[in-house]
Automatic annotation (TrEMBL):
Its EC number is 2.7.7.7. Poorly processive, error-prone DNA polymerase involved in untargeted mutagenesis. Copies undamaged DNA at stalled replication forks, which arise in vivo from mismatched or misaligned primer ends. These misaligned primers can be extended by PolIV. Exhibits no 3'-5' exonuclease (proofreading) activity. May be involved in translesional synthesis, in conjunction with the beta clamp from PolIII. This is DNA polymerase IV. The lineage of its organism: Bacteria, Bacillati, Actinomycetota, Actinomycetes, Propionibacteriales. Keywords: Cytoplasm, DNA damage, DNA repair, DNA replication, DNA-binding, DNA-directed DNA polymerase, Magnesium, Metal-binding, Mutator protein, Nucleotidyltransferase, Transferase. Belongs to the DNA polymerase type-Y family. It comes from the Bacteria. It comes from Nocardioides lianchengensis. SUPFAM superfamilies: DNA/RNA polymerases, Lesion bypass DNA polymerase (Y-family), little finger domain.
């Protein structure tokens, strides 16, 4: 098994596309006071900035970093290039997220699976990833199981390769802290600590009955196996859908509540149509709302039985919006349905089914306030492509540069300057 993990992915894409940020600390995530760090470059990590840290704390640790909001079109493009490359070498590829995946090397058409062979293959693959992504690096681990490969890929970051020879798995794991095992979070680690168990070697000495008593039957059985480097999980290339969702991002902040309700209603209709097309229904309706400061909120409500009715989904989505404060503006709205089933509860009492909502054409009003988010791509009539350095008090500051240009000049404009506009690439066929 091979596990590939792109290094500091979001931040690395930003550094690749913004020459002036190369070699400097970059933090990607929510840029507002309630924001959360998604990814920090290795230059920022030296100051203690980590994923899931509040942006407020990250700014206090590394005030000179560039704090940028996400550009998901750029991340998706890089991810597609990597996943396509992996699928070209093996039909069994299991993406875990945009930036990491497992690959079954038994299906990679290698002459053998000797250590020297898989090492050379993995080294070549890393080079091809850098070429396909125009400069990004990946850390790779290879082992006899998914668990060992994942552990190995974390051992030599960034831009590293670790191959664990068969038969040496337990020697690798024994000195490590128990948190290296999947499923050992803070609560489980504390239970084990109170029992005097800190390392994998110490966990290995605990019999199954005692481990079940400590952490429960299901969890204990899994940890018992993993502590002995036993993991027979296969690479699963296609995962069953766990949810169906639709979302939209808007170039201008939405402030009209009626407009937002209309957009949620339309999205609910699209979700319902996708459910019916797939022969599915779902019990849990959720909404996703990203505010003007890139804080992302979510709310959900669970029905007593599955539904694929657009009216029901829309009604719940609109009710979930009611309790959220959107007065500052909203830049993303989404509706999703999870808890999927392949059946719909019939109305056993003969009530009239909820009427399907009408889905009128919706226009985003031009007077909605435009958000110039730090890091977003823009284009100017005279100076061409660039990105937002910062904005406020009616002014937006832009650095004009691209991935293939040298670090460019910085200029400031009025926020409503007609010569300046957001830039987005043409959608890939699968995004249309």
């Amino acid at each position: 098994m091979l596990h590939l993990d792109l290094d500091a992915f979001f931040a690395a894409v930003e550094q690749r596309d913004k020459p002036s940020l190369r070699g400097k600390p970059v933090v990607v995530g929510g840029v507002g006071g309630r924001g959360v760090v998604s990814t920090a470059s290795y230059e920022a990590r030296r100051y203690g900035v980590r994923s899931a840290m509040s942006t407020r704390e990250a700014r206090s640790r590394c005030p000179h970093a560039a704090f940028l909001s996400g550009r998901f079109h750029a991340y998706r493009e890089a991810s597609r290039a990597v996943m396509g490359l992996l699928r070209s070498v093996s039909p069994l590829v299991e993406p875990l997220s945009l930036d990491e995946a497992f690959v079954d090397l038994q299906q990679a058409d290698l002459p053998d699976l000797e250590v020297a062979t898989v090492t050379a293959f993995a080294e070549e693959l890393r080079g091809r990833v850098t070429e396909a992504t125009r400069g990004l690096t990946a850390s790779v681990g290879v082992g006899t199981s998914k668990f060992i490969a994942k552990v190995a890929s974390d051992l030599d970051k960034p831009d590293g390769l670790v191959v664990v020879p068969p038969g040496t798995e337990q020697d690798l794991l024994r000195p490590m802290h128990v948190t290296v095992l999947p499923g050992v979070g803070p609560a489980t680690a504390e239970r084990l600590r109170r029992a005097g168990i800190h390392t994998v070697a110490e966990l290995e000495q605990v019999d199954l009955d005692e481990l079940v008593r400590l952490v429960g039957k299901a969890h204990g059985g899994g940890l018992f196996q993993l502590a002995r480097a036993l993991d027979d999980r296969p690479v699963v290339p296609e995962r069953e859908a766990k949810s169906v969702s639709v979302e939209g991002t808007y170039d201008t902040d939405l402030t009209d509540r009626k407009l937002m309700e209309g957009l949620l209603t339309r999205q609910a209709g699209e979700v319902a149509a996708r459910l019916r097309k797939s022969g599915l229904s779902g019990r849990t309706v959720s909404i996703k709302v990203r505010l003007h400061d890139f804080t992302t909120l979510s709310r959900s409500s669970t029905l007593g039985s599955p539904t694929d009715a657009a009216g029901t989904i829309a009604r719940l989505a609109r009710s979930l919006l009611t309790d959220l404060d959107t007065s500052g503006g909203v830049r993303l709205l989404g509706v999703g349905v999870s808890g999927l089933a392949d059946w719909v509860q019939e109305d056993l009492f003969g009530d009239t089914a909820e009427e399907e909502p009408e889905l009128p054409e919706i226009e985003i009003p031009h007077h909605s306030r435009r958000t110039w988010a730090p890091g977003m791509d823009v284009e100017h009539d005279e100076l061409g492509r660039g990105w937002v350095w910062g904005s406020g008090r009616g002014v937006v500051t832009v650095r004009f540069e691209t991935a293939t240009s040298p670090a460019g000049p910085v200029r400031s404009y009025a926020e409503d300057d007609p010569a300046l506009r957001p830039w987005t690439p043409e959608p890939a066929p699968e995004d249309e």
